[in-house]
Amino acid sequence: MSNASFRGITFSAIILLGILLYANTINYPQFLFDGNMFLLNNPLFKNLDYYAKLFDIQEFSGLDESLGLYPDVTTNFMMRPVAYLTFSINYLISGFNPAAFRSVNIVIHILNSLLVFACIEQLLNSMPSNRSLSLFSARFIPTASAFVFLLHPMHTESVTYITQRFASLAAFFYLATIWLYLLWSKKEQRGEKGGLIRWMSVVVLLLGMMTRESLFTAPVMIILLELTVLGNKSLKSVIRRVAPHLMLMPIIPVMVILVSAAQDSSSPSLSGAINIVNYVDTPIAHYALTQLVVLVTYLRLYLLPYGQNVDPDPQLYTHPFQWPVLSAASILVLMAGYAFHLFRGNRNDVRCVLVFVGVAWYLLAISVTSSFIPLPDLMAEHRAYLPSVGFIMALICMIDILRTKAESTRVNRIFVIGISVWCMLLIVLTYNRNKVWRSPVRLWSDAVKKSPAKDRPWINLGVAYGKSGNFLEASKCFLKVIEINPDWSQTYEMLGDSYLELKRYQEAVDVSLRGIDIDPANPVIYNNLGIAYAEMGKEEDAKQAFSTAIALKPGYQNAMINLDRMESFMESKIGRRK
Prior knowledge:
mainly alpha
């Protein structure tokens, strides 16, 4: 079979399997998790005029107050306008049709799988000194890597979870940048003109940097490929060749510095930029130590994909000599050290080179989210989407190296069967994992089982139960949140709402009064308190509660309507007495 025919069959299989694997998620109805904040309730991407305002960062940063948005929403929009533009196109064409949004996510994931194959195939054929790679290896490595990437359940969060198009689209631009650069390099080696392809790589990288911050490491990755796979021995020559890509690197740090300064109304500073989304004030050293453990946890999830969790609750490590930190650091050092040793001892075997490159890819690509820059969540599966390309490539290359130690037609068949069985297992795991995204109750019920001591899964499960009309279960969830975090005032609002729906008015009064003790400036709790008093026949107390809510939030429509009804009721009651 010719290479062109093999490639065509492989690409067709990837497309077909990708569609079949995720087809059941198309009609899942909800925008889950932070889809409400970043999409449903976000006016910024619904109106293309806001994109023109991005050039004035100071003015744009003030939109969170004028539009009633979380600062994280405007920050996210300013840093990732290309990703939001794809959401805008979705919205303008189909409104908030989840099937349309998910269809685009699935297409992106399939394209990424095709690019994984194309990039690894290019890498295998780009090493000048490599002459010994067998035809079987040349086909097995890119094919197995692409299928494992396509089918792995760890990637469900970047596909089925609509908002995390950020991760998959960024991976598309990253992979496309590498692939185009390799194409240009190959043309140059053959003495052909390929300048247009080189500049296409630069443009794609720029688009990627406007999609997600992880593209910051792409130029460094290209330099590594030049020094290893492409065999360029002169660092000066490498810098010259990669110069257009390197010139784009300051874009992300400069944008982060400017946006953080605008959000805080302060002078630009490195400290402010590093802590731009550090809302829980996690110390940088503690975050960095914890990420060592998280990096190894991602690796475990790729090798043994069980216990996936949309809202994990990893421990925050505070000391470098804690056993999990020491063991994780040892694993990472041993992995990197062995990969480098393999590379140094076998520079003419492209597979050994790609083991080293793959490990470096994993560590480089994940360094933006999982190093020393504190993010609100210590761990999230979608962060490993792009880095996994390197790990999967290194793993498949290692498997092929082991295969060739006892190479025969029979051994080749055993390895193909083994990879096929692994892929079938991944299909089953991915299909089952996607089921939890079918509804908010399913998703958050799964999360609270795995993160029972974390407040956010419980409050989200409570909200999900409330939206489904099960206010009794919702109230139980909110009580659990208060048990875990008694200072979260929003929980008292939601628990009060649940008790009102259940007509348990005295309990609504009690929980509202507790909430007021926690947050005396919360108008929603006062409004709930007023409703409960009104239902109990305590008109004066209700009137006072509604009045306080309006005083705290002038123009608070619900409280104003409730107060007007209460006053009308009291007047009619007095009239009847006369």
